[in-house]
Amino acid sequence: MTLEKYERDIIVTNRNRGLQRISIFHPAYLPLQYPLLFPYGERGYQLGICYHDATTIQRGKNKRNKVTVHEFFKYHMHYRNNQPNPYLCYGRLSKQVIVDARAMEDEDRLQFIARNQEKLRAEYIQGIFDAIGKGTTSKSNRKKSISTF
């Protein structure tokens, strides 16, 4: 089975273009999915949101300057005094959007794994080859040598 069969999306019609798919990473996905929570069409998560100060986030050798799905929803679901928050103040509907946000995060992670399968499997298999190359034959030694990679 392919990954495309499991995608969630919304189909909208446009006068000029006809039917058009809106994926979960489109900024209009959440307002279209939950119009009661976002009556003014506030933008939802989209790919490529940059940090305000991109130099502050560093992970080892790689610098990350884009906001992740998890960070976006963590920021927007945080309680703030005297500010209405659609993610928190609408009871069961708020719970539904929180579950949907978590599903979006999981789907993003699964798509990353699917897109980078060759690199991920190569690193795993390379660890096994390195352990065998070192002459590791017993099961307990193999676990120790693989876990160090």
Question: How would you describe what is shown here?
Answer:
With 149 residues, the protein is an alpha+beta fold. The protein folds into 2 domains: 113 residues, no CATH class; 33 residues, no CATH class. Helices cover 42% and strands 11% of the residues. The longest helix is centred in the C-terminal third of the chain and has 24 residues. The two termini are 32 Å apart.
Q: Helices, strands, pairings?
A:
Layout: E1 9-14, E2 18-23, H1 29-33, E3 58-59, E4 62-63, H2 69-76, H3 92-115, H4 117-133, H5 139-147
Antiparallel strand pairs: 1-2, 3-4
Q: Gist?
A:
This protein has 149 residues and is an alpha+beta fold. 42% of the residues lie in helices and 11% in strands.
List keywords for this structure.
2 domains, two-stranded antiparallel sheet, two-stranded antiparallel ribbon, single chain, alpha+beta, 5 helices, 149 residues, elongated, disordered C terminus
Reading the helices and strands in chain order gives EEHEEHHHH
Strand order of the largest sheet: 1-2
Give the rounded overall mean pLDDT: 75
Helix count equals 5
Shape: elongated
What's the story with the biggest beta sheet?
2 strands, antiparallel
Helix/strand/pairing category: alpha+beta
Low-confidence stretches: 145-149
Percent range for β-strand residues: 5-15%
DSSP E strands, number: 4
Taking the alpha carbons of the first and last residues, their distance comes to 32 Å
- Tally of structural domains: 2
Helix content: 40-55%
Output the radius of gyration: 21 Å
